[in-house]
Write a structure and sequence with these properties.
The complex is a heterodimer of chains A (about 625) and B (about 450). Chain A is mostly helical and about 625 residues long. In chain A, about 55% of the residues lie in helices and about 5% in strands. A two-stranded antiparallel ribbon of chain A has the order 1-2. Chain A has a two-stranded antiparallel ribbon with strand order 3-4. In chain A, helix 7 packs across helix 8, helix 14 crosses helix 16 and helix 18 runs parallel beside helix 21. Chain B is of the alpha/beta class. Helices cover about 30% and strands about 15% of the residues of chain B. Chain B has eleven helices and 16 strands. In chain B, strands 6-5-7-1-8-11-4-12 form an eight-stranded mixed sheet. Chain B has a two-stranded antiparallel ribbon with strand order 2-3. A two-stranded antiparallel ribbon of chain B has the order 9-10. In chain B, helix 6 runs antiparallel to helix 7 and helix 9 runs parallel beside helix 10. The longest helix of chain B has 25 residues. Chain B is globular and about 80 Å long. The N terminus of chain B is likely disordered. Classes of the chains: A mainly alpha (about 625), B alpha/beta (about 450). At the A-B interface, helix 6, helix 7, helix 10, helix 19 and helix 20 of A face helix 4, helix 6 and helix 7 of B.
Chain lengths: ~625, ~450
């Protein structure tokens, strides 16, 4: 089972919960992330190849720096970019505003929280405002971690499968970064230059701009011919104004360039020449692949621009961007005494590399305990520590501390093989118990903390959907690539994702749910009803609820209706005898033969209501939804 | 421990049975209110043009806007002072000055507590909309309605506890993220009802194309399903999760029976229809949704959220009037004013206003200076929300902005204080309603919030 590619898909899905992976940005204007999926495929691959855990950690935090020769390392940093991103805060707010600083603070907050919760099971983000009495994590640790991520944003980065090409492209990008670094201060100087004429021209441009705003605003939805004609007029006029504004701006720039001293002007021209040449060289290369990942450098859009060098980070009084205290030095958590808590580097990539090394150090017990506990949690439905993202004082106490430490050491010293760890757990006596009850044990340990039996569990949302496809023979096992969209999409100012306008009848085969396009702002109603978590949240363990909305989704969701139809068709193809049809249905859906009393009950039911209803009925049964 | 199924059942029991009588349905202390309807103005409704009267701004109309210090706006440089295009007059016994943009709400001034010193921690629609809805500027946190469901449980077994009625034009910024349950279990999530659509509730009934499902087959299906599920459960010693799932189908069946009736306004009297303006183009959508909200509250829904306005697209379809306040606020307020006032009057007439809170809000305010020539930019430094009914003092104003309505001058408050007050009225101590998530005992009010005693009757 561990050799099946389905293993990586199953365990990869768990990892994506922890990483809060989504394929849109979230917030207002929830734009699709068309290049997020290479990270999802990386995760599946890593599990299937049984990548040593230390390497898996290092790649996701700083793979672009630590493994610079392979695209794999770069793709892996999709982990840092997996969470939500405030499009308006980053790409529309003007540089230098308070809200822009807040947007960046919160963006780094998400990155460091994801890293420390995932790999160390620590809730460092609690220390943003001040030290806590009950927690050993210092406020200065929090800002040390902010400083680790001070030079990265989330953006699309190019990569190539061919290592030589990949290296060439990276060299060009480095040239571009350096020219930008040279140009920016000169441009900042230019923007400050003024004269009476410049002020007059800018005043003119502003007035034209106001007129243009009002013209644009007069436009209606244009349903009637008259409205459309009026809209066309307005468009033409607006375009003319835009042209005039452009001309004025060009004139202002010309005047300003004339005001620069000659050496600065020449320096700018030289840098612009370099930039142009590098851009042409980039465009001359074969088209790259792109991945949405941690990005120290990327192509600007709107007001979203790369830092080029790490942005200065200070400890903030009460977490307020207007109350900076002392500058923060990159580092990690002081409470891990065996390791240095601050990193001696100012370079962007080295900061993340240092954190990656801090995480996977043999002397850092948190990392190894954290991962074996996660694996235990997914096998038993409950971790040895029942708060997999929090081993701190606010978290749950371990039920079996010695076992946890033993597993952690076995795992660490055995090369960090997850497949070995699975084998160890799966072949244990405790795992091979049945979920049958026992009145005496029930009385002593009702919650089964001490694992005297297996926990019975409801299938998660993805498994329900995949099973419904699988039993009708409609599950397409093609792996990887861009995600499948099970909604109607309209790319608007704020994009529209409408699940009610998607007809599964038009899609004869569908892939496993891990390849489903995950929208942050608008959840898929069927998946949401089955406790599929909000991808804006770090989810180390899912809730399990039984709601009326879930029952209605299981009964009436168009996908399950369609699957009832297809499953009935499959049964008919198999045999025209009801006994054989029911037998196949039970074997497919419940992995057993029907009992005589069930056959009697369901024969009568099917005669009245047909096979489609029978299939729908069985897919709604508790036995289909629960594993013993 | 809370968060497991057992924990939830406990909170439900506490609310409905154990303390149900002596605390009037409250969780920590006696409740004054049992239910809430929230009217959420998406895109940022201007306080300067509605409830925050500034005679000085009228005098300074067209003069340079110079409040001292750097004025940092969302997307523009500040233009001159701009008086509201609407006139103002005093309303009711309290004599509250309210603009001609919202005369119907003005007529209800004696029942309303206006909060003029609201501030937001973000100047950007997405985070700010989250903040008023969930108390946090980040995505993924439970909304007020989800917290109330978690704290108080439901008042009926036939309808959801928390219902959201989005604008017919579409979702507000952040979409359904604004009414998510976050880390709270899914049973606390909102049920979204798209009033006016053929299938207002997703998956409430099978799609029409499912011709094999008939009324008779549906009865047989549910009965047979229950038989199979009971037999399965009996073999397993009565597992509580299995029992809960059987129960969920019974609840689903009740919802199928109750919801269509609750959404059907055809039997409302002509007088009521007129009151809400459901037969007039301007007020049809918002009026119908306010009337549906009242019907849901009557039938035991705990929290109904009614949105005015959609996302920030073009042409404008919400309150985000950067270009032309008169045109766009004229439209939005024209849709909202009469139905909102109707809701207060109607709840009062039905004797429900005493224990129903009407909660009007928006994500931030707008600037007293102009943007472009006729619009207003965002103002997170001062804006107005208001409450009515459900134990709230009427005809009062709390806090104040400065002479322009630019920044708060007295008693600054955030949504934390408003949320704390609303929970207080519902019988909940906001500091004690917590849920452990990833190592933090999360609260709706984070680590903030003071109950606004001055507006509690």
């Amino acid at each position: 089972m561990l050799d099946s590619p389905r293993y990586g898909e199953r365990w990869g899905r768990h990892w994506l919960d922890v990483a809060h992976y989504g394929e849109t940005h979230g917030y207002d204007k929830d734009k699709p992330r068309r290049n997020a999926w290479p990270y999802r495929d990386y995760v599946i691959r890593a599990f299937n190849e049984d990548k040593p855990y230390a390497r898996f950690v290092r790649e996701q935090v700083a793979g672009d720096v630590l493994y610079p020769d392979t695209p794999e390392g770069l793709i892996a940093t999709g982990f840092l970019a997996a969470g939500p991103w405030d499009y308006v805060g980053h790409a529309e707010l003007r540089e230098g505003t308070r809200d822009k600083r807040i947007a960046r603070l919160l963006d780094r907050d998400d990155m460091l929280m994801t890293v420390m919760s995932t790999f160390s099971s620590l809730t460092v983000h609690c220390a943003r405002c001040h030290n806590h009495k009950f927690d050993p994590i210092l406020q200065s640790d929090y800002y040390a971690l902010q400083a680790v991520f001070a030079g990265v944003d989330r953006a699309d980065r190019p990569y190539d499968d061919d290592p030589a090409l990949f290296a060439k492209r990276k060299a060009i990008l480095e040239t571009l970064r350096k020219t930008e670094l040279g140009i920016n201060p000169i441009e900042a100087h230019i923007a400050e230059l003024s004269s009476d004429e410049i002020e007059r021209l800018q005043g003119d441009a502003e007035e034209l701009g106001k007129r243009r705003t009002l013209l644009n605003h007069e436009k209606s939805e244009g349903k009637t011919a008259e409205q459309q004609a009026r809209n066309a007029e307005l468009d033409a006029e607006s375009k003319m104004l835009a042209e005039q504004i452009r001309e004025i701006r060009a004139r202002v720039r010309e005047i300003r360039l004339g005001m620069l001293d000659a050496t600065e002007r020449e320096r700018l021209a030289r840098l612009q020449q370099d930039e142009k040449r590098a851009k042409a060289a980039f465009d001359a290369l074969p088209k790259p692949h792109w991945v949405y990942s941690a990005a120290p450098y990327f192509k600007s859009f709107g007001t979203f621009t790369p830092s080029l060098e790490p942005r200065p980070v200070s400890v903030l009084g009460r977490g307020d961007v207007d109350s900076p205290l002392e500058p923060a030095q990159p580092g990690a958590v002081t409470a891990v005494k065996a390791l240095p808590a601050r990193f001696k580097t100012s370079h962007e990539g080295e900061r993340r590399a240092a954190l990656a090394d801090w995480l996977v150090d043999e002397k850092n017990p948190l990392t190894w305990r954290s991962i074996v506990n996660r694996v235990w949690h997914y096998h038993f439905g409950k971790g040895l520590v029942d708060s997999p993202n929090d081993f701190g004082r606010m978290g749950a106490k371990p039920t079996h501390p010695e076992l946890l430490d033993w597993l952690a050491v076995e795992f660490r010293d055995g090369g960090g093989s997850l497949k070995q760890l699975h084998r160890l757990i799966l072949t244990s006596a405790v795992y091979r118990q049945s979920s049958a009850g026992n009145a005496e044990f029930e009385r002593i340990d009702r919650d089964n903390q001490f694992l005297w039996r297996m926990n019975a569990r409801r299938l998660d949302a993805e498994s329900v959907r995949d099973a419904a496809l699988q039993i009708a023979g409609d599950l397409d096992l093609t792996m990887g690539g861009p995600p499948d969209e099970y909604f109607w999409f309209k790319d608007d100012h704020s994009p529209v994702y409408d699940y009610s306008r998607f007809d599964p009848a038009e899609h004869p085969k569908e892939r496993r749910s891990i390849y489903r396009f995950v929208v942050r702002s608008v959840p898929d109603p069927l998946m949401e009803s089955l406790d599929c978590p909000d991808p804006s949240l770090l989810t180390p363990k899912r809730n399990v609820t039984m709601t009326a909305v879930q029952a209605l989704a299981m009964l009436n969701d168009p996908l399950l209706i369609e699957q009832s139809r297809r499953l009935a068709e499959r049964l008919r193809m198999h045999s025209s005898d009801f006994g054989q049809q029911l037998d196949l249905l039970y074997r497919l859906a419940l992995s057993r033969a029907p009992r005589p009393d069930e056959t009697k009950l369901l024969a009568g039911y099917a005669k009245e209501n047909g096979l489609e209803n029978l299939c729908r009925l069985v897919m709604n049964s508790n036995e289909f939804l629960f594993v013993d | 421990m809370l968060g497991s199924f057992g924990g939830l059942a406990l909170s439900h029991l506490l609310a409905r049975d154990a303390h149900g009588e002596d605390l009037n349905g409250g969780l920590h202390h006696p409740a004054k209110a049992k239910r809430i309807v929230q009217l959420y103005m998406s895109g940022a409704a201007s306080q300067v043009d509605t409830f925050d009267y500034k005679p000085d701004l009228i005098k300074r109309n067209g003069q340079k806007f110079d409040p001292g210090g750097k004025v940092e706006l969302f997307q523009s440089d500040p233009g001159p002072c701009m008086a509201s295009p609407w006139g103002w007059k005093p309303y009711g016994e309290c004599g509250k000055w309210i603009s001609d943009l919202v005369p119907h709400i003005g007529s209800q001034a004696d029942k309303i507590a206006f909060l003029h010193s609201m501030m937001s921690k973000s100047n950007v629609h997405g985070p700010a909309t989250f903040m008023q809805a969930t108390g946090f500027v980040l995505p993924g946190f439970p909304s007020l309605g989800a917290w109330l469901s978690y704290g108080l449980g439901s008042l009926t077994d036939n309808l959801p506890t928390f219902v959201v009625l989005p604008d017919a034009r579409g979702f507000p910024p952040n979409g359904p993220g604004n009414w998510g349950a976050g880390f709270l279990p899914a049973e606390h999530q909102a049920t979204m009802i798209r009033v006016g659509r053929e299938q207002p509730i997703h998956d409430l009934f099978p799609p029409e194309s499912a011709e094999f499902i008939r009324d008779s087959s549906e009865k047989a299906t549910l009965a047979t399903l229950e038989k199979l599920n009971r037999a399965h459960m009996d073999q397993r010693g009565g597992d509580s999760l299995l029992a809960a799932r059987i129960q969920s189908y019974q609840m689903a069946a009740r919802l199928q029976l109750t919801a269509p009736e609750a959404l059907d306004i055809s039997k409302e009297t002509p007088a009521v229809r007129k009151l809400y303006g459901v037969d007039e183009e301007m007020t049809q959508d918002f009026g119908t949704r306010c009337l549906v909200a009242r019907r849901l509250l009557e039938r035991g829904v705990r929290f109904v959220q009614v949105w005015s306005g959609a996302d920030n697209g073009f042409p404008r379809r919400n309150w985000d009037s950067h270009e032309n306040i008169e045109k766009d606020h004229g439209q939005m307020a024209g849709e909202m004013d009469r139905p909102a006032a109707a809701l207060i009057r109607d709840l009062e007439a039905l004797g429900m206003l005493d224990d129903t809170i009407v909660y009007w809000t928006t994500e931030f305010g707008r600037m007293p200076c102009s943007q472009g020539s006729l619009g207003r930019d965002h103002n997170p430094f001062a804006f107005t929300s208001w409450l009515a009914g459900g134990g709230v003092k009427g005809g009062v104003s709390y806090g104040a902005s400065d002479e322009w309505s630019y920044k708060v001058a007295e008693n600054p408050i955030y949504c934390y204080d408003l949320h704390a007050t609303v929970l207080h009225l519902m019988g909940i101590d906001h500091k004690r309603l917590t849920y452990r998530n990833n190592g933090i005992d999360r609260r709706l009010t984070d680590v903030h919030g003071e109950v606004l005693g001055e507006i509690v009757a």
